[in-house]
Design a protein that fits this description.
Structural class: alpha+beta
Oligomer: single chain
Strand order of the largest sheet: 10-11-12-13-14-16-15
Bound molecules: 2-acetamido-2-deoxy-beta-D-glucopyranose
Shape: globular
Number of strands: 20
Distance between the termini: 66 Å
Largest sheet: 7 strands, mixed, barrel
Length: 593
């Protein structure tokens, strides 16, 4: 408090000794770095001190601050904006990094029920899943290469501009602030057709953030609900397929406010160690990413082409992670060895057991393929109708040789347009009812692997059971609604800011933009349809998110209505737990009366 009249100073100091208290404030600015934040309390405005941009702090001595607001100030200290929230001071909140114009609140995201036992760790002690109930803020201060990349994400001939720029990274979580030297570059191909670009941040100097050295931030440019991918990764995780999970973050780079993003892990050795091998890096084996060119082909068909590694053109398969300790591979054809082995084994299995419903046939496949996670992945694809992934086109998926278990498994990633119910160029007319052959009609692609797999009666029976249990336990409106509503509560205050950010972005790149509104967000979460409209939207969302889950879930429920869930999948334990519940009620009744 400033005292101007000399005579009152002593009185005021005395009063201060009796009454004054220090009030602490920490707040994240969402304006660019030409602005600072201030605290407004009792009609006084105190400038805050830059801590680690965009975080500002203040320690204010005062008799009693009970209500306050954050304000945006320009360089001369003039208030240019005031937040809409009335805040009440509390010791708890004073320890948190509050965010300008965002309510400080506790949200719990109800977990999706897990329909199956799973053998994967899905995170390790030093590489835990990201917390999903807060929104981080990431600011990168980068060199001039960033501007070049932002303005020209494609070079001549549609080549990707993947130049890296050096940056200082600041990541602000609810309670902490982290700073690193690092780099950033663009990721993906399809995602950079949009004006709101997707980035990867890498951390240098052997430093780690939550055990990570890289973070991908995905723009969600074509999703009015900003949560389809998030909910889908939760679904993969619930059924027990390891995927790169995510959390939300607001992204600012230099003076650009990019908006709300989904932060996800990159598919790398550390992630594989944590999510597949319980943290043991020595166990990480060779990993291949599958690439397909649709509709002309070639597709990564997983067909055996011979023992010559040259035949496995890097166009169809790229080696993403090599296990240099793989003695057998080193003795043979090297880094393509495991891929060749897989295609060979699968081809032999198919030839021998295609129509064979014996245990032997199942066990022969189980020896080299994780059947469970493969079918679970296919079930999630069926339910979500992802269009660029494994079943439809053999894309956005890796084939991983798990040397710990000595089998192969698939690792899916990047789930664009999931749960939108878009027909797209490849699905047939009644795709929305079809839970079995919805993905099979792609031109120039015979679906050698997926059709071959499901042609075995035991495998297709198992697919049916997984589908039936997943829709009954998890993928239905009753179960998923509270999950979706909780995410909506978490991000709602960021939605409008996010959609508007793209219009204020300084860039010469003329990428696609979807001008969604807060209303579009609310509508499309429920059953509002948002169709392409060339002046404002480049993407279709023909179903609302909840509506889609309801329709798709019910369709796949109807076709699996007769499927009996075997006891080992928890049918027994479920009825047993009901039995226990009734027993305890009876005992309670007897004790009480
Ligand atoms: C501070 O002010 C608030 C509201 O004006 C009042 O409720 C509270 O009792 C005051 N606290 C102290 C310590 O004077
Ligand atoms: C980026 O940083 C690396 C060292 O980490 C350095 O070698 C390189 O020259 C830097 N690039 C620019 C453009 O400053
Ligand atoms: C790539 O895929 C195409 C189409 O399936 C196939 O004809 C071709 O042989 C594959 N190339 C290699 C080298 O694997
Ligand atoms: C604060 O956020 C609300 C939405 O939650 C928005 O309507 C309002 O315009 C924002 N105010 C400022 C000053 O940014």
């Amino acid at each position: 408090m400033k005292i101007k009249i000399f005579g009152f100073t002593i009185v005021s100091t005395l009063l201060s000794i009796v009454n004054a208290k220090v009030y602490n404030f920490k707040a994240v600015s969402l304006s660019n770095n030409e602005y600072i934040l201030g605290v407004k309390h009792d009609d006084v405005i105190d400038q805050m001190t830059p801590a680690a941009f965009p975080l500002f702090t203040a320690q204010i001595e005062a008799d009693n601050i009970s209500n306050y607001k954050y304000v945006v100030l320009d360089q001369t200290g003039q208030v240019v904006e005031e937040e809409s929230i009335d805040r009440e001071y509390s010791e708890d909140n004073s320890n948190l990094n509050e965010v300008y114009n965002r309510t400080t609140k506790q949200i719990t995201i109800p977990e999706l029920p897990k329909p199956f036992k799973t053998s994967y760790s899905l995170g390790s002690k030093n590489f835990v899943p990201f917390p999903n109930n807060e929104i981080w803020t990431i600011h990168a201060q980068c060199d001039e290469i960033y501007d070049e990349v932002k303005n020209t994400p494609f070079l001549e001939g549609n080549l990707r501009n993947d130049k890296e720029s050096n940056c200082t990274l600041t990541i602000i979580t609810a309670e902490d602030v982290y700073q690193y030297q690092g780099t950033t570059r663009l990721v993906g191909f399809g995602s950079r057709l949009y004006k709101k670009l997707s980035w990867v941040f890498k951390i240098k100097d052997d430093k780690k953030f939550f055990g990570r050295t890289a973070l991908k931030v995905r723009s969600m440019s074509n999703d009015p609900t900003l949560m389809r991918e998030k909910v889908l990764t939760d679904l993969y995780t619930a059924v027990g397929v390891p995927v790169q999970e995510g959390t939300y973050a607001r992204v600012l780079i230099n003076n650009d406010v990019w908006g709300l993003y989904e932060v996800v892990d990159t598919l790398n050795k550390k992630w594989i160690a944590a999510y597949v091998h319980n943290g043991d890096k020595k166990m990480v084996g060779t990993n291949y990413k599958l690439f397909s060119f649709h509709p002309s082909g070639p597709y990564a068909e997983l067909k055996y082409l011979g023992d010559d590694p040259e035949l496995y053109d890097p166009v169809n398969y790229t080696v993403d992670e090599v296990d240099s300790d793989d003695v057998e591979a080193n003795k043979n054809s090297g880094k393509y060895y495991r891929l060749i082995q897989f295609t060979k084994k699968f081809g032999e299995w198919l030839e021998k057991y295609q129509d064979d419903s014996s245990d032997e046939a199942y066990e022969a496949l189980e020896k080299f393929l994780d059947i469970e996670s493969t079918l679970k992945m296919m079930v999630v694809e069926t339910l979500s109708l992802v269009k660029d992934n494994f079943w439809v086109i053999m894309g956005n998926v890796a084939l991983y040789y798990n040397k710990e278990k000595d089998y192969y498994q698939f690792l899916p990633y990047d789930f664009d347009d999931a749960m939108k119910g878009i027909k797209g160029p490849y699905l047939h007319d009644d795709y929305i009812q079809d839970c079995y052959t919805w993905a099979d009609d792609v031109p120039n692609f015979e679906h050698y692997f997926t059709k071959g797999l499901l042609s075995n009666p035991r495998i297709s029976e198992r697919y049916n059971i997984i589908l039936a249990k997943t829709v009954r336990d998890t993928f239905n409106l009753d179960t998923v609604s509270s999950h979706i509503d909780a995410y909506a509560d978490l991000i709602r205050e960021d939605v409008e800011w996010n959609f508007n950010a793209i219009d204020n972005l300084q860039t010469s790149y003329d990428g696609f933009v979807n001008h969604y509104t807060l209303n579009d967000f609310e509508d499309n979460l429920e059953s509002g349809h948002l169709l392409v409209d060339t002046t404002i939207r480049t993407d279709d969302a023909p179903y609302g998110l909840k509506e889609f889950i309801d329709i798709r879930g019910n369709n796949c429920k109807a076709v699996t209505a007769d499927v009996q869930i075997p006891e080992e999948d928890g049918a027994f334990s479920h009825s047993f737990s009901i039995f226990l519940l009734i027993l305890t009620q009876i005992l309670l009744f007897i004790t009480l009366y």
